[in-house]
Design brief:
With 202 residues, this protein is mostly helical. The protein has 7 helices and no strands.
Amino acid sequence: GITSWLLTKDHKRIAILYLLPITAMFFLGAFFIALVRLHLVTPEGALLTADSYNRSFTAHGVIMVFFFLVPVVPVVLGNFLLPLMIGAKDLAFPRLNLLSWYLFMFGAAWTLFALLVGGVDTGWTFYTPYSTRSSTYNVVPVMVGIVIAGFSSMATGINFIATIHRLRAPGMTWFRLPVFVWTLYATSFIFLLGVPVLAMAI
C-alpha cells in the first residue's frame, strides 16, 4: 500500500518517489515559462502585467533550476543505479535516504507556497541589491525553501560518498568504477560544498 512506499528504505522505490514530484516540477516550471512566451506573442504583451511577468519568469527559473535540473540525475538515476553499479544491496544509510526525500518534499512545498502566495520578482539568481533592497516579495521564504531542499541534496551526497567508499563489491576497485559512479561521487562533494555557501548567502 501507500504506507509501504512512504516508509520504504529501498533505494529503487525512493528513486521512484523522487521521480514523481521532480516530473511534476518540470511541468509546473514549463507552465510558468509558457505564460511568459504567450505574453511575448504580441508586441504589446497583453497577457501579463509587468509584475506578473517578472514573477512568472522567476518561478520558472527557481522551479527548473533547484527542483528539476539540480536533483533529477543524482537523486533519481543515482539512487536507482548506484548500488546496482557497484554491487551493493542498498545505499549506506537507507533511513537517511528516505529522510532526504522528505526534506526535498518539504522544501519544494515551502518554496511553491511562497512562489504562489506573493511570488518573487528577482529572477532565479536573486541578484543583490535588488533582491535585498527593492523587492517587496517573498525573497527570504523562497530562499529558505531552497536551502531546505539543499539539505536533502547534502544528505544524498553523504550517502553516496559513504556507499562508494564502503559498499563496493569485492574486486570493484576505484579504477574499475563506471564513469557514472565517478560523476555521482564528484557531484556529492559539490552538494556538500554548495549548500553551506548558499545558506551563508542568506
